[in-house]
Design brief:
three-stranded antiparallel beta sheet; single chain; Outer Surface Protein A, domain 3; elongated; 177 residues
């Protein structure tokens, strides 16, 4: 029995859930999304909750049960509250700014790096050294943040680069005389 899958998903106020066969459509204030539930699971929507139950009890079906439940829960959270990843830039002269639909990064290269922001994702720079990536799709928000971070990952000697908020970078000891 899946410990994750057996928990029902609470649907907050303002979120509409419709079921067409094994396709769950979820709409909220931040957008709408669909999820195709595997055929080995059955879906029930009642009393403001979404419940998934397996049709058989095998190991593979139990894995799909927990995964499908969490994917639907992420969609419900995304269309109601959204997801945000905060990032910090450390380094002398390193900064970021939003110009139109592009994120412009000054990261010590001979040129500024222009990152086109994908549709459905919002990037904000409250300070020149802080980036906030937000959107309704958890996977796309995380992927966009990872792509921004890959332009200049934190290096292990001085810690300069783009890092997630609260990320600790282990610094190596430098050369000794």
């Amino acid at each position: 029995m899946s410990r994750v899958g057996k928990n029902p998903i609470a649907v907050p106020a303002g979120v509409e859930v419709t079921l067409a066969g094994n396709v769950v459509s979820i709409a909220g204030k931040l957008g709408k999304s669909q999820y195709a539930v595997p055929e080995v699971l059955s879906v029930e929507v009642a009393n403001g909750k979404i419940a998934l139950t397996p049709k058989e009890k095998t190991t593979e079906i139990r894995r799909a049960w927990g995964t499908a439940r969490n994917n639907i829960d992420n969609i419900v959270t995304g269309v109601s509250k959204g997801f945000t990843v905060n990032m910090e830039i450390q380094g002398v002269g390193y900064r970021a700014a939003v110009e139109g639909k592009d994120l412009v990064l000054q990261l010590g290269f001979s040129h500024p790096v222009r990152f086109p922001v994908p549709e459905g994702i919002t990037v904000k720079c409250e300070k020149p050294t802080a980036i906030s990536v937000s959107g309704a799709d958890k996977q796309r928000v995380g992927q966009t943040a990872a792509e921004i971070r890959n332009y200049r990952r934190p290096e292990p000697y001085k810690g300069k680069g783009i890092r997630y908020e609260g990320e600790r970078v282990l610094l190596k000891e430098g050369k000794k005389k």
